[in-house]
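Quick one, T. Sequence first:
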Amino acid sequence: MAAKHPSAGLAPGKFTATVSAITHAFGDPTRRGIYLFAREHPLGVTAAQVAEQFGLHSNVARHHLDKLAAGGYLEVAVERAEGAGAGRPSKRYRSAVEVDLDVPVGADDLVLSLLGRALALVPREQAEEMAESVGEQYGRAMAAGLTGADLAHGQRSLRSAMQAVADALTAHGFAAHAESRDGRLRIISEHCPFGDAAIEHPVICAVDRGMVQGMLGALYGDTDTATEQSLAAGDALCSFTVS
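Structure tokens:
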């Protein structure tokens, strides 16, 4: 049976600790891939196998595996080959718990569908403004759970704020990361937790953009966030440019 996602049913006061625990293990896309690779091999994998599979240095592969093991997501078995001398024993990493990395946001499909239908009753531009406004308010509330006395408004760089936003989105099922490419800053989301509701009613995607805008506004300051790609529109991922 799959383990219950750590963010399900959390009280607001526990949000920061949950985000930290999840993103510590799965905030890096390569590490998520390594976890899934290990889960596909019931007998476990070695750092050498992971290094070959993902084109990594063995030390980097071992670092990712140890992070997953430290979080309790992988078990480590120390093995020594028969007839081996006094060299370093081999570590084999096996899946310890099945984690669903595609969990939905804490709202059921019926509510999302009703939201989409309600927004469809008003002009598209007005509907997007409403959806983005709701997302922005929620994003600011999320940021309030991430910030403390030492992380007051304006004390982050834009890049560090974007990484914090990506981590928070990942904890909410978006599988997100921040990147800088071609002189542009982006937040990439490889999974849409709104699922079919967003495909049926693409205006819901404005909620995502609003969440990014709201969190960045609270963690860094005013930015201009624009939707560049959208899963609901048939793209391979969702991406938001930030300037």
